[in-house]
Write a structure and sequence with these properties.
six-stranded mixed β-sheet, disordered N terminus
């Protein structure tokens, strides 16, 4: 942004008297007249932004350019006399940033704010003046990209500037669009800086700005930023890659011929499509070289196929896989399952008779625009909402319209940005915010899990690799301190379990409000919100820190393999039949019998893991069936929260079902969870489901299952 302004008197930190007394209000009309040099008419755009206007009109033919003219007049007047480190007039910087955005298709408000993005920071123009001249939206965006004062924040100025910018982005993504374009132009002209300063700026760009460009889908900016950072931080690898590309440029490139073949195939199939060869950028070539070793001619680019409709994408894919040899491992469908940064395309690779493998990307023209420009291509995210809010205002509901404006939510705000805005409020200091921000942005994939309780919202967005702990804090906030377990897809699991995309999660909270997290939760938490909340609780409760390893449970006294076979009868005369203690089969379970040492027959449920082991050991299988008598013995495990009188309540529930308790074991509590083991004699095996339901209905019991 303004790091290269070399007029110290224009900088507010160099003129503290301005900060104390407030900046002098400028006469914008006088500055405007001074900026209109020569015979330029008042209704014509200054020549200096003619190229910006041309690029803007290419995307928005009906755009009103008068506001751009006024913004340029103010920017040129206020920056007059300031020079960049390169020796160029400072106005060339906001013009270049605005041109970058105009070429991406940004709408007029974004371009207006881009022209003015350094005026409040580096000149005597105030936010109130920007608001009065250009409206609230432009003022908000300009404020969002304006750095905080170093005189106030010192070494924390950079992280606090990014915190402020990200919060503003949560309300209007156009703030970050301008910041990315601003950083790109500064990186293009970074050669005039000292090497150590180049490296510092490049590292921040790598750790923060490039991941943000990726998440906002602005690939056109991201790829160029990657190449510029690559050249500064890895000069040897960059030179090697540049040499590879230079050597390839002198050789025959097979991709144009392959593209011609693709065109012919699609033309014969009657599919209207535009086929291009897209060269890879430097970092992409470097990654391919690391992955494949020696590069071939087709590795230096990809083929892009643009069509009109979504259905045409799959038609193109069918023709490619029919007329060429597809490389199935390279196929990815980002249309049916878009990336979390709005990206949609079909990716595939085909092999030619000459032995070349060409990567092919298939997308519609609209997908291509979004893939290149991301959120910039979406225009004004509030235009539709503003139109809806205008209707009630015209009908006399002015208060309702005002509420709508105050609560406006950016429809482009993705889950990762919402998470970031939540946890940044809890970051205790700028250093923590800065380090955690970099770690959060390093996560390059997202998953979505579903809430089993049916609450709103029904889904939770998490970074790939997140655990049940992360889901708990995303759903419950600090109330997740009392989480003691989870069910994932209906199965009880530990809080450390990692989640996969599409999982259904039910989180179990302790009834004791004073409970807190264990220290080892930090080893499994991936999201900043969870890690900050856990660390804060552990620091506030040093005497309550739980051990990192849970105490061993007491041995279970389960009555398992029994001398008698109960109701089981084996088709082997005079054989002793035993019911296996590992799965405790009861009528009418499907069972299998195996002959063990001593000639006895052990009976297992058909899905017991021991069945596969018996077969692998070559044990002789024996057919088993159940007698007509209905009584049986079974072992049940009950998991519950610890509370007084729980054992008595469970025993009473069992007795009400007419079931005899043969033995019972209660293990010591672990993290407020208690395991009960019951061996029960049932008068009728058909009553087992009702018994298990009755036990689950006891308050505090959250799981009952067969042993």
């Amino acid at each position: 942004m303004s790091a290269e302004a070399t007029n110290p008197e224009a900088r507010p930190e160099a003129r503290p008297e301005l900060r104390r007394r407030g900046r002098t209000r400028l006469d914008l009309r006088r500055l405007g007249r001074a900026a209109l040099l020569g015979p330029t008419s008042r209704d014509r755009l200054p020549d200096a932004i003619g190229h910006v206007a041309e690029a803007h009109r290419a995307h928005h033919p009906d755009a009103d350019l008068s506001i751009l003219r006024r913004a340029y007049v103010l920017a040129e007047s206020s920056h007059r006399g300031q020079m960049r480190k390169s020796g160029e007039p400072y106005i060339t910087h906001p013009l270049a940033v605005t041109l970058i955005l105009a070429e991406l298709g940004a709408e007029t408000t974004t371009l207006t704010a881009s022209l003015l993005h350094d005026t409040v920071e580096d000149t005597e123009v105030t936010l109130d003046q920007v608001r009065a001249e250009f409206g609230d939206e432009v003022c908000f965006i300009v404020d969002g990209v304006t750095k905080v004062e170093k005189i106030d924040y010192g070494a924390a100025a950079e992280p606090e500037t990014f915190r402020k910018m990200l919060v503003a982005t949560g309300n209007d993504v156009r703030v970050m669009s301008i910041k990315l374009a601003d950083r790109l132009h500064n990186m293009r002209t970074l050669g005039v800086m000292r090497p150590e300063k180049q490296a510092r700026i490049a590292k921040v760009t790598r750790d923060v700005l490039i991941p943000l460009a990726e998440r906002l889908g602005v690939q056109a900016l991201k790829t160029e930023l990657e190449d510029l950072v690559f050249a500064i931080l890895h000069p040897e690898e960059y030179e090697h890659t540049r040499a590879l590309i230079a050597a390839h440029s002198g050789e025959r490139d097979p991709l144009p011929a392959i593209a011609d073949s693709v065109k012919a195939v699609l033309r014969d199939a009657g599919i209207a499509a535009e086929v291009q060869v897209r060269p890879r950028h430097f970092v992409s070539v470097h990654r391919i070289a690391l992955k494949r070793g020696e590069l071939r001619g087709s590795d230096f680019g990809r083929i892009l196929v643009l069509v009109g409709e979504n259905a045409d994408c799959y038609a193109v894919l069918g023709e490619l896989h029919t007329c060429f040899t597809p490389v199935i491992s390279e196929f990815k469908d980002f249309i049916a399952a878009p990336k979390f940064n709005l990206y949609q395309s079909l990716h595939t690779a085909v092999a030619t008779p000459e032995g070349y493998v060409a990567e092919v990307i298939v997308r519609t023209r609209q997908m291509h625009r979004v893939a290149e420009a991301g959120v910039v291509a979406l225009g004004n995210p509030y235009a539709h909402a503003a139109a809806e809010a205008a209707a009630p205002a015209e009908a006399g509901s002015a208060a309702e319209a005002a509420d709508c404006d105050e609560e406006r939510v950016d429809p482009t705000r993705p889950g990762w940005l919402s998470r970031l805005l939540d946890w940044q409020q809890s970051a205790p200091d700028p250093d923590t915010f800065w380090s955690v921000l970099r770690a959060e942005l390093a996560q390059d994939r997202e998953i979505t899990v579903f809430r089993a309780d049916g609450g709103a919202p029904g889904t939770i967005s998490l970074p790939a690799g997140a655990s049940c702990i992360d889901a708990a804090y995303a759903q419950y906030g600090e109330a997740a301190h009392g989480c003691i377990g989870a069910r994932v897809n209906g199965r009880l699991t530990s809080l450390a379990s990692r989640l996969s995309d599409g999982d259904t999660v039910q989180l179990l909270l302790a009834q004791d409000a004073s409970s807190g997290p264990a220290a080892d939760w930090l080893e499994h938490a991936r999201t900043p919100a969870a890690r900050i909340a856990i660390s804060s609780w552990l620091q506030a409760h040093p005497d309550s820190v739980k051990p990192t390893t849970a105490p061993a449970r007491a041995p279970l006294s389960v009555v398992g393999a029994r001398g008698g076979g109960g109701n089981a009868v084996a088709d082997l005369p005079d054989a002793t039949v035993r019911l296996a203690g590992c799965c405790t089969p009861v009528p009418p379970d499907a069972v299998a019998g195996f002959v063990v040492r001593g000639g006895a027959v052990t009976v297992h449920r058909i899905h017991c893991a021991a069945v596969a082991q018996m077969r692998a050991l070559g044990r002789t299988s024996v057919a088993v069936h159940w007698r007509a008598t209905a009584d049986c013995r079974v072992t049940l495990l009950a998991e519950s929260f610890g509370r007084p009188h729980l054992l008595a309540d469970l025993t009473e529930a069992i007795a009400r079902q007419g079931v005899e308790v043969v033995s019972a074991t209660v293990e010591p509590p672990v993290e407020q969870r208690v395991r009960h083991t019951y061996t029960l004699q049932l008068p009728d095996a058909t009553g087992l489901p009702a018994l298990m339901r009755a036990m689950r209905d006891v308050p505090g019991v959250y799981d009952v299952r067969r042993a």
